[in-house]
Amino acid sequence: MEGKCHIPVLLNEVLDYLDGDGEGVFVDCTLGLGGHAKEILIKHPKSSLIGLDIDEISLMKARENLDPFRERVTLYHSDFRYLPDLNLDFQKIRGVLIDLGISSFQLDSPERGFSYNQDGPLDMRMDLRNKYSAFKIINKSSENQLNKIFFEYGEIRQARKLAREIASRRKINKIETTTQLRRIIEEVCRWRPQKGKIHPAAKLFLALRIEVNQELKGLDNFLEKILHKLREGSRIVVISFHSLEDRIIKKAFVRMASSENCPPCLKVLTKKPVVASREEVISNFRARSAKLRAAEVVR
Ligand SMILES: C[S@@+](CC[C@H](N)C(=O)[O-])C[C@H]1O[C@@H](n2cnc3c(N)ncnc32)[C@H](O)[C@@H]1O
Questions:
Q1: Is the C-beta atom of 99 inside 6 A of ligand 1?
Q2: The pTM of the whole model exceeds 0.70
Q3: I need a surface site. Which of 14, 28, 89, 219 has the fewest CB within 10 A?
């Protein structure tokens, strides 16, 4: 896995939106390799940072990358959804960053099975302690369950057809690798590469990843819980990469900023989601689907 890196997306925008009042503690809920975290630490030399990641391998890399700042950094191998339950002084926190999804480091590691472009085992677990994997879903879920996952999380029109074909093929031989699955998708969807057309496996792999890691579960509840714990003036910045996540974040922000939620506990700082500039997308293709929303806690 040596040599793989990850370019933090919307970096200047993240730093700007986190730039509230004074120094304090920042929390990076999805530390990855520590790209955003490092820049936050450089920009705020008197602040400290708490970093969480569910992926122990990424966390180890981040630990190395943030070594020059080790006196100001505390790391947790944890799902950020447990953050509100950690024994922390939440009143000291002045900024929280959530950069959802997976990093290029994870995507470009074939042995993790996240990418349909590289041959590897059907895995896709961010947390290696997780017993649920893409292999289990593909080989053990019922046809109806597969259809539901593909349709709900991948918004795939041919979900039923794909589910049927997978259920039939696995009776002959288990589907064990990313390449085997990609070939089935290509056959069912009669894939012919065309400029500007997205490979049909992209949506199905995303749907599987969401299911394996239960990525949407509790996101809404987490936002509500953490925002109630933070002090006035704290900022929260969330970057998402697909519409299902963005919809949850948008709705949660709107609900908490509404006067019906009495008193409102949030001021939304981004009327529309902030997206990457053309220049950023050219230099980092991953940024093309990033959407950033930011808010400030009010009391
Ligand atoms: C897009 S990357 C973050 C990259 C990071 N901002 C950087 O600049 O290096 C997302 C990271 O969040 C982690 N992650 C995803 N869901 C998580 C969760 N529920 N709890 C903790 N970490 C999570 C992934 O393992 C991955 O390392």
A1: yes
A2: yes
A3: 89
